[in-house]
Amino acid sequence: MGYQLTKMDANVLFSKLSKTYDIFAPVVKKGDGCFSDIDVVRYDKVTSVDEIEWNKKSDYSFKESLLHINETLFYFTEDKTIVPNGPEKELLIFMRACDFHALKRLDEIYLNNKFSDFYYARVREKAKFALIGCETSCLNGFCVSMNTNKTDAYSLYVKVDGETVSIDVKDEAIEKEINTLPVNTSDVCVDYVKENYEKVTLPKNINPKSDLWKEYGSRCINCGRCNFVCPTCTCFTMQDIFYKDNARVGERRRVWASCQIGGYTQIAGGHEFRKDNSDKIRFKVMHKVQDYEKRFGYPMCVGCGRCIDVCPEYIAYSNLLNKLSKEEQ
Q1: Quick one: which of 137, 43, 152 has its CA closest to 94?
Q2: Which residues, other chains included, contact 23 with Cβ-Cβ below 8 Å and sequence gap of 6+?
Q3: Which DSSP letter does residue 272 get?
Q4: Which of 17, 32, 38, 269 is the most buried (most CB within 10 A)?
Q5: Residue of 11, 3, 123, 21 whose CA lies nearest to 63
Q6: Would you state the pLDDT for residue 67?
Q7: pTM of the shown model
């Protein structure tokens, strides 16, 4: 049993929740795309239903609401280090079903991968998640093939239909706030994708010597955009920043990185493990599909299709997977 309320009352609910939560959701950023006349859908803080982009999949994932692109781990002086405080408020993050499955992958890496990451854990324990349904498939997504098109792990499901807002709630604290408003009880059916335009068959044993690596490597320009929009990529690098007024004082930052850009695998002495583009693409695909599954029991990719959306060379990750599967036949 769920609830129905007017959009006006839903905005009142958001105002109430904003006192306890920093609410993050996909928002249309006018003119912030690659060119001045192109919009981009990206996560930001919201305080009302009207600010959220309900219909279009975000160009960038929810990940930057939990993991800042550039995060200070600690400040250092000549004789001590200081860890910055974590978030004061709880978080309420709106995302789609495929992103809920991506969250599970992030948890595996940052919480269950032998050691728990302190910085991720302190943000994660404050976060709740709200589901945005998908009535139809996005253009390049293949979530149905990856079994990531459904979820029931949400605290809140919200659907906006004109001036009516339907809500299914599983969190007691949020439900108390809803019951302070004039609402009607109603059955709420969660929207989810039943069929994608893209259909993918995952390869079971990827051929590391396939000619496909050279074919796709010749097209890649090492921009790293596929990694930065991916909700499951977790690679980062470290930067030590020294202040001009005192070279012995500064901060250490964790910054998102990409396995597809030059220099990522470079070590002391200038040796680089994967210089050739074909090796970089092979590493990414085998990690996403085969290596991660061997470790955790399911593939890392959730089929959101963002890497395909954003690639300037029109490299379709889904096509590559299907070609690798055909080679096995």
Answers
A1: 43
A2: 14, 17, 45, 46, 47, 91, 92, 93, 94
A3: B
A4: 17
A5: 123
A6: 93
A7: 0.94
